[in-house]
Every structure is written in structure tokens, then in C-alpha cells.
Amino acid sequence: MMRLRATISYDGTQFAGYQVQPGERTVQLEIEKVLAKMHKGAMVKITASGRTDARVHATGQVIHFDTSLQIPIEKYQKALNVQLPRDIRVVAMAQVADDFHARYDVSGKRYRYIWDCSAVQSPFRRHYAVETNGMKPDVEAMQQAAAAIIGTHDFSCFCAANTSVVDKVRTVHGLELSWHGEELHMAISGTGFLYNMVRIIAGTLWEVGTGRREVGSVAQAIASLDRANAGKTAPAHGLYLEQVFYE
């Protein structure tokens, strides 16, 4: 047996999320189906760095699994990509130590959130960026508000109310807003993120940028530890898991 680590990219549009769910099409299910074929029907469980929700995309999700197949890594990657549906691709593979764990060994992650601020949105981007109907926010105000997010905090206000996680302290290393043509991108990196944390941050900063929330309200929301004091959860299809870091 050998343990393989794979970096995968997927278009979340037609998925109910990463994790297997009864009766739903998921990223995990599609990959495990292909691995079962390659292993003559034997179940091969994959483990990811974390799950993503329905319609959320990934360019750098990381998984690991154990395999009994003794074939070169490059051929293994090709065999997976030939059989996987077109909305999932394995972009890199490597053999790793038997104790490598895609979830527990994570040292950090980077996410990207995208708004399409074009006056006329492209029909080809509608599943991959949140349309603003031509509205362009005050990015300087958003960046000022984002300064309060950097650092180590209890991020209870930026966590979905139905989470079971008790410890909500996380460290955000960086948050940058930048224009890419008519698209506004938010890139955020940190040690880890709570359920819906990035989407709630995106929704809150958007409210700052569009004048519905004061710059100082973000720091106040963090201090309050109350989800009710943060903004709306931004739509899922604007979010990308961009990279997972390991020490």
C-alpha cells in the first residue's frame, strides 16, 4: 500500500458540495467511484483538507488516499482524469509518507471571492462570479474595514449559527481586495476558517463597500461575538478554495 496526495480542481456548479451525501452528486462520490473501478470494485476512501458547500469551487483542494496499485504517479493521474467527469480534474499527484493527513496536517488555506461588477455581465461567468448589476463598491472603505479582521480573534460573528464547533478562535494572515478588469477579487488567507466564515466576511465587507454598513462596524461585530451583528452570507458560487498549505 502507498499513500497518495492529490491536488484537485473542480467546478462546484453541479455539485451538492464536496462531502458524500445520500442521493446527491458530490465531488467525493465521483472520485471514489472512479477509484473503485480502478481497484476492481474495492472501496477506496479519500480524505480532503476540508469540505466545500454546494456551488463552491476549488482550484487547489487537497486529498489523500491509500492505494494498492503499483503504477507510476503520472499514469495514475492520467487514469483518474480520463475517467473523472469533466468538472473535476487532478492537477497534481505525489506519493507521501504513510502518516500524511490532508486534513490534520493543514497549516493554512487561501480562499478567493469574486464579484462581477460589469455593467453587462458575461453569460459565461454567471456561475463563477457574483453579479452586482454594474454596482462598484468603495474598495478603500472595504479595505479599511478588513484591517480589523487581520490577526487572531474569536470569529463567532463570522460563523454560521448552526455550527457545532466550540473553539472559534482563528488567525487571518491577510485579506486583499483587487480589481481584475471589471471583477473585484477578495483573497483571504489564514490558519483555518469556520463554517461559512469567508462568505460572511465577503457579505459584510460588501455592505461596507456599498454604504449599508460603517467601516467601524466590522471591528464592533468581531468584539460582540454575535452573528447578528455581521452581514449577510454572500452567495456560494463566488467562492473558491484556492490553495491549502502544509508545513
How does this model look, in words?
There is one protein chain. The protein has five helices and ten strands, in the order βαββαβββαβββααβ. By secondary structure, it is α+β, with helices and mostly antiparallel strands. The longest helix is centred in the last third of the chain and has 13 residues, at 197-209. Strands 1, 2, 3, 4, 5, 6, 7, 8, 9 and 10 form a ten-stranded mixed β-sheet that branches. Helices cover 21% and strands 31% of the residues. The model has no long low-confidence stretch (mean pLDDT 97). Helix 3 packs across helix 4 (197-209). The chain folds into two domains: 2-96, Alpha-Beta Plaits, CATH 3.30.70.580; 110-239, 2-Layer Sandwich (Alpha-Beta Plaits), CATH 3.30.70.
Can you lay out the helices and strands and say which pair or pack?
Blueprint: E1 2-10, H1 27-38, E2 47-48, E3 57-67, H2 73-83, E4 88-96, E5 106-116, E6 130-131, H3 139-146, E7 151-154, E8 169-180, E9 183-190, H4 197-209, H5 217-224, E10 239-246
Helix pairs in contact: 3-4
